Amino acid sequence: MVSRGYAIFDTAIGRCGIIWSGSGIVAVQLPEAREIDTRRRIFAVHPEAREQLPSGNAELAIEGIVALLQGGDPDFSEVSLDAGRVPGFHRRVYEATCAIPRGETRTYHEIARALGVSGAAHSVAQAISKNPYLLIVPCHRVLEAGNYTDRLSPYGGVISKRRLLALEGAHPIASKTLFEVLLPVAPPRAPS
User: Fold this and answer.
1) Residue 148 phi/psi, 5° resolution?
2) With 90 as the cut, is the pLDDT of residue 5 above it?
3) DSSP-derived 3-state class of residue 148
4) Which of 18, 25, 34, 38 is most buried by its number of CB atoms within 10 A?
5) Chain centroid offset of residue 101 CA
6) DSSP string for residues in 118-146
7) What is the DSSP letter of 116?
8) Residue ranges per domain, the chain?
9) What is the CATH number that goes with domain 88-152?
């Protein structure tokens, strides 16, 4: 018996990958520029996984991911996740992230406050950046302060948070440039 399986599947944004174990979904891989690169990313992170037909749980996740990327609002509550290697704090962050409604966003600070650890925004950002369950745990809905988008986790492929949020009808601000970080732009003055 193979301990982990994976499958590549078609979506509106390209060919995604999903990795699972007997306990649940291990990771979701969004498309890279080429399918071979998506497969390489899966092999690099999960060399023990073997391509096979999706389990029932993986099929349920695939159906939801396909629907979400077509603009739908799927319910992932029945999808089991394999959180065996996920730290406890990250699990709490992912649970809070799953409570964010479609088309809405929260900041790292807001998630930290919701978890009762208001000074832990950096730790929340770290957990979000390591989210292996892309789309199932909608980390694209958690942004830095100011509603700026930033990159997805290593499983994000070439798809941006901004693009995923646009599919949901949210319109965040593009990532800050280094210039904007070093020299914040002053708000326009009101006419006199």
Assistant:
1) -80, 140
2) yes
3) strand
4) 18
5) 14
6) TT-HHHHHHHHHT-SSBTTB-GGGEEBTT
7) T
8) 88-152
9) 1.10.10.10
Task: Identify whether the C-beta of residue 111 lies closer than 8 Å to the C-beta of residue 66.
Answer: no
| Structure token pair of residue 37 | 């690169």
42 exposed, middle or buried (CB, 10 Å; 0-12, 13-18, 19+)?
buried
DSSP assigned state of 8: E
Per-residue b/e over 152-189, b at no fewer than 16 CB within 10 Å? bbbbbbebbbbebbebbebebeebbeeeeeeeeeeeee
List residues with catalytic annotation: 139
| pTM score above 0.85 | no
Q: What is the pLDDT of residues 126-150, one digit of tens each?
A: 999 899 999 999 998 998 865 545 5
How far is Cα 127 from Cα 87, in angstroms, rounded to an integer?
9
